[in-house]
Write a structure and sequence with these properties.
Distance between the termini: 35 Å
Structural class: alpha/beta
Number of domains: 1
CATH topology: Rossmann fold
CATH superfamily: Vaccinia Virus protein VP39
Radius of gyration: 18 Å
Bound molecules: S-adenosylmethionine
Number of strands: 12
CATH class: Alpha Beta
Length: 281
């Protein structure tokens, strides 16, 4: 096992522990999804367009709540994630909610480089790309599994958010550090975000959260991502920035507003906190 295998293995274990805790915060997910509840935000829905009947690959799908909401809109969804607990939870949620989707436990590059089927949409959102150690490999893999005319759709936190601290100073991680690896256990960010990340109903954990496993994330600028997509031969149709973050309190002092959106505190000038990207093969 080389160091990259070890980092990926630690990341898998860290996500297993975190996913169990994140799901413990969320009440009665199956019934909520089955009765029409959806964790999706208007931004990704607008970027995706009509998904009915589309073969959609949801990369880094975690426990499948978004994947199943897309399936309920009529997409033929395959969700892929590294975490055993995430995929197990997604498969159970699919059975219990009665919403059909396929879930595969796999490392993203392994999946993209070996899958024989082709998709009309390759989608990722909210804290996905930062887990990938090589953006060219991701973009080339996504281009490989897309059928001609198919689209990559990304709705992501802007990488600038990892530089900003609670007092809104640029004291955290450097923005320009391509591929720099950050190692820390996956946190209980659902607990930090509350109902904004648990629209089905939120509860506190019974015991304090502790994750013994480090996870390894990577810093990519927005330009790194756009360039990787262009280098893979995809045609960039759209790049949008948003001055708020959906759902997750990626900076501790964000203030929740309407629609589970988190905004900078009053008096802070607007900066991009999310972006959307659509690129076509
Ligand atoms: C923040 S979550 C993504 C959440 C997602 N937006 C959703 O719909 O819930 C990040 C996910 O990436 C997965 N992950 C991390 N590294 C991965 C890799 N190399 N290949 C596949 N999945 C990976 C983790 O297991 C975790 O479930």
């Amino acid at each position: 096992m080389d160091e990259h295998d070890r980092w990926r293995e630690e990341t898998r274990q860290s996500w297993n522990v975190a996913t169990l805790a994140h799901n413990r915060h969320k009440l009665d997910q199956a019934r909520w999804l089955a009765s029409g509840g959806s964790p999706l935000f208007p931004e990704e829905l607008e970027l995706l367009g009509d998904v009915a009947g589309r073969r959609l690959l949801h990369l880094l799908c975690n426990a499948g709540q978004d994947s199943l909401a897309l399936a309920r809109l009529g997409a033929k969804v395959t969700g892929v994630d590294l975490s055993d607990e995430a995929i197990l939870a997604a498969q159970n949620l699919s059975t219990e909610s009665g919403i059909g989707a396929e879930f595969v436990r796999s490392e993203a590059f392994q999946y993209l480089e070996h899958e024989e089927r082709r998709f009309e949409v390759v989608f990722s959102s909210y804290g996905a790309l930062t887990w990938l150690p090589d953006l060219d490999r991701w973009a080339q893999g996504a281009a490989r599994v897309l059928e001609p005319g198919g689209r990559v759709v990304i709705c992501e936190f802007h990488p600038l958010v990892w530089s900003i601290d609670a007092e809104w100073r640029l004291s955290k991680d450097p923005y320009f550090a391509p591929g720099h690896r950050f190692s820390a256990p996956v946190e209980d960010y659902v607990g930090r975000s509350g109902p904004a990340l648990a629209p089905m109903g939120y509860r506190e954990l019974d015991a304090p959260f502790h994750n013994p496993h480090p996870a390894h994330a990577y810093q990519w600028t927005l330009a790194d991502t756009v360039t990787a997509v262009a280098r893979a031969g995809l045609f960039i149709e759209r790049l949008t920035e948003y001055p708020y973050a959906n759902g997750c309190r990626v900076i501790p002092s964000l203030v929740e507003g309407e629609g589970r959106r988190l905004h900078p505190p009053p008096g802070v000038p607007s900066v991009p906190l999310m972006y959307g990207l659509v690129a076509r093969r």
